[in-house]
Design brief:
elongated; mainly alpha; single chain
Length: 191
Amino acid sequence: MKWRYRLSTNNPNQRPGTAPRVSAPARPTQRPGSVGATKSASTATKAAPPVAKRPAPARPPLVKPAPKAKARRARLLVSKVEPWSVLKMAFLLSVALGIITVVASIVLWSVLDVIGLFDKVNSLMTDIQGSEGGSAFDLMKFASLGQVASYATIIAVVNVVLLTALSMLSAVLYNISATLVGGIGVTLTDD
């Protein structure tokens, strides 16, 4: 069973099943003194002075520039740092620093060997020592490429362990101090 509702209207020529016609809302009145302002009957007693109109531009711009939006700002607090994520990041960064240390020491030793610094130091030490000292001084006994690389590797491994442990400790200390003070305030913007 279908129900049919019929709106009663004052229009006798309206067809059944169509919606009643609604007129557009009245335009709001403009501010007094602006161009084309409408006057009510009570204020229409005076004649309005003529208003000079600007000439219309010859051609309107094709694209209007977008209005510049204000940058939003958010003030946040870093109240906790996860020690496990700090441990992982510190380990990866210290391993990268260790690799850089080993490679840089090898490159530095190669550059010093190419410019002949080791030979000059050997001849200087031999001149200082003289012929009475016995065997001649050889810097390569103490600073060969293999020894420099192994010393740099040992230093890099110690740095990896120390930096990882210190960063983990600093994350725990930060969490403890952040519970007391509230954390570090950070202001973020979307410029």
